[in-house]
């Protein structure tokens, strides 16, 4: 009896487990060398020839053309890490891959997959306890937040800027959107613009949009601006059906032209008399209206996108108006300044201060698209982790110190666990060693020697990580060097890696339809 299509392919037992584990390990290995301050970049070229150069784990995995379903689960680990805490994507993927590698060895020793899963979950719970023990007792102030941001960006492409100077901008941005209810992370945006040194990167107290004035005679800057946001076409109304009008005389033609001019002038006068200094509309603006408003000193932007209109409304407190007759002063938003600047082929509108100051924009500059793209990714991750650290008030040592502490605690607890599950718990600790080993390898150190030294220093000092300073690598307390990570980044990496690895290990039957 056939219960599946003849074209279906089925892989069972050890073969299925081996195939899935191998795929997961391959994906983890692809990003492993990007880990740490000396991590290497990857160049990804798609079928259209588009090039991405980055060492961001989530970006690498999403750009890769991965088809294997088990490998996709590792990609989902990175995506989950990115979405929840914004950083630690490489760590999560690498840990998941090494958990699979350790599980493969256990399966070959006839340890049942269910036992491995139970052991991994127990070890994960111990790991979370170890993370809690590593949390710094110091208050998470601006200096600590700068260290978090700098640690996140060290080793990433930051152009001519240092991670330290960028971290100051990041902390300023996050502090700007801190409220009594927490951190409004969504109120911080990153806008990139090619054409200058990365040193020109700045923090704009407001928003930046890709728009140019509707008329070249309009003012390029308006102070203390009253802002109208419209969904209105400022031009001659047209019908929805095709129609023809027969004109039999010059008088009729002049009457039609006068009527059109009167309609256009009416729009312009209504806007000018409303008291609005700056107008954003999602529809077209007739050239005659633009010219009239330019003479009146009104700055107008036409055909803005819906997303930009929403951002302007959110930032300035304006209300979108769908009919010109409904426009009232109470609908206006406000900003300290609106300016239009030209950057090569692009014109940008800067909406700054006033109500707009509740939103801030990191305006990123760079000499090439690759530079600004990588800067955008680095700053985005830094913003996320600084916001996470500020919200939780919990940071732990970086540089592999937390992973060393976790592995040490798991090994101690494993001694009290009976049966084969103890092997899985110990294997979990062994898998975590990949982080300090990889950090050591990426800095040119011998991974085994470095791991032994780290364990010894941890036993004697209670905290030890691999500190990289230029060409020098030191084993010391990361807190002393300002190398810190949010505790939530470590927790999320452990939890998501464990979930993915245990899900893959439990699969012993793969049925694929063609």
Would you count the extended β strands for me?
Answer: 20
**Residue ranges: pLDDT <50 for 5 or more in a row?**
none
Structural class: alpha+beta
Count of DSSP-assigned helices: 16
Q: What's the shape? A: elongated
How much strand content do the residues show? 15-25%
Largest sheet: 7 strands, mixed
As a percent range, the share of helical residues equals: 40-55%
What is the mean pLDDT? 82
Radius of gyration: 29 Å
How far do the termini sit from each other?
20 Å
Tell me about this structure.
- The protein is of the alpha+beta class and 514 residues long.
- 48% of the residues lie in helices and 18% in strands.
- It contains 16 helices and 20 strands.
- The strands form seven sheets. Strands 8, 9, 10, 11, 12, 13 and 14 form a seven-stranded mixed beta sheet that branches. The protein has a three-stranded mixed beta sheet with strand order 6-15-7, with helices on one face.
- α8 links the parallel β9 (221-230) and β10 (278-281).
- α3 packs antiparallel against α4 (89-108) and α5 (113-134) crosses α13.
- The chain is elongated, with a radius of gyration of 29 Å.
- The two termini are 20 Å apart.
- The mean pLDDT is 82.
Keywords:
7-stranded mixed β-sheet, 3-stranded mixed β-sheet, single chain, alpha+beta, 514 residues, 20 strands
Short description:
The chain is an alpha+beta fold and 514 residues long. It contains 16 helices and 20 strands.
